What we know:
By secondary structure, this protein is of the alpha/beta class. It contains 15 helices and 14 strands. It has helices spanning 5-8, 12-19, 58-71, 86-98, 110-121, 136-144, 157-165, 190-199, 221-225, 253-262, 264-267, 274-289, 292-311, 330-342, 372-389, and strands spanning 30-31, 35-38, 41-45, 103-107, 127-131, 148-152, 173-178, 203-207, 233-237, 247-251, 322-326, 345-346, 348-350, 361-365. The strands form three sheets. The protein has a seven-stranded mixed beta sheet with strand order 4-10-9-8-7-5-6, with helices on both faces.
Amino acid sequence: MDIFEKCYHFTEAKEAIEKGIYPYFLALSENEGSESVFRGKRVIMCGSNNYLGLTTHPKVKEAACQALKRFGTSCTGSRFLNGTLELHEQLEHELAEWVRKPAALIFSTGMQTNLGTISALVGRGDYVVLDKQDHASIVDGARLSFGKTVRFNHNDLQHFEKVLASIPADAGKLVVVDGLYSMEGDLAPLPDMIPIMQKYQARIMVDDAHGMGVFGGGRGVAEHFGVTDHIDLIMSTFSKSFASLGGFIAGDADVVHYIKHFARALIFSASIPPANTAAALAALQVMREEPERIERVNRNAEKMRKGFRELGFNIGRSVSPIIPIIIGDDQLTFITWKLLLENGVFVNPVISPAVPIGMQLLRTSYMATHTDEQLDKVLEVFEKVGKQVGLIN
Length: 393
């Protein structure tokens, strides 16, 4: 059996390309935050995670430029060896302070943060407990560990307790959930989960990649709920509100120290480049100095949730700038995506396995820098296309 045989028989993507409904790997010629240019046409960007619009902020761009001039393009080595700069340590210190934890550790990507942290902490005889809608990086981190993975139904507290109760009392237990779920736009019920975890002596890690910069005055979902002291580990990325690339884990100093010495995704990866580090630092400064951006992104999200509901779209349980338009069919999802793009609105189609069968959706997301005129235009286009494909009356 030729190991490449499956490659030659994978035709679904090629068929979608031939039909003109292939929605992935789209090359943008310009990306200015709230608008982009695709094949010479300007479109309103409603598919980005640039929640605060900081990728084009003058302070963030200038910080990256200055770091590039001073340090060059790369550290060309692992944090473990020659790849640590004082700039990295400064960012770690400020991030720990921002999320109100004693220590933080930077990884090269958010994906690596979850792979490294979970696989370092969960060993043989341990259990990692996941929400069924957790991000793929969490699932893969659990797979890389030597522990056993168990899962509970999305935000189902009764099932969550049932799963914890089934684990041997003397086993180590790490619960890992998203703070803000990246497809559904809803929050983990952290205040209700904490007493259940305490009952079964489990630890918790919150992946707040999408909630950081948006909730809790920018400090994330734990801060939003007022439960930061009860969350053991807070993880986030730099590729969303921080307008850069990388990720971090924050928690007790001894735990972070352990992860630093056992996370293979950290030890065997080159460190985050200086320009990305400086950009994330500058973005954090902007969050402190311009809290109105956080207020604005949430106002924009509220406007769009209200608008979509009034038009008759199914947006599920979204409470955030991530607003799904639930369609429930692959073909209709792709057709609707294409018509929206042709009418000047860029969104992301999402099908199984990223979401369960029957929950295929268009993932829309909004920024602090979207204007009311842009958002009104988006609703206008959605109304037109929604009626055209039969999603709304």
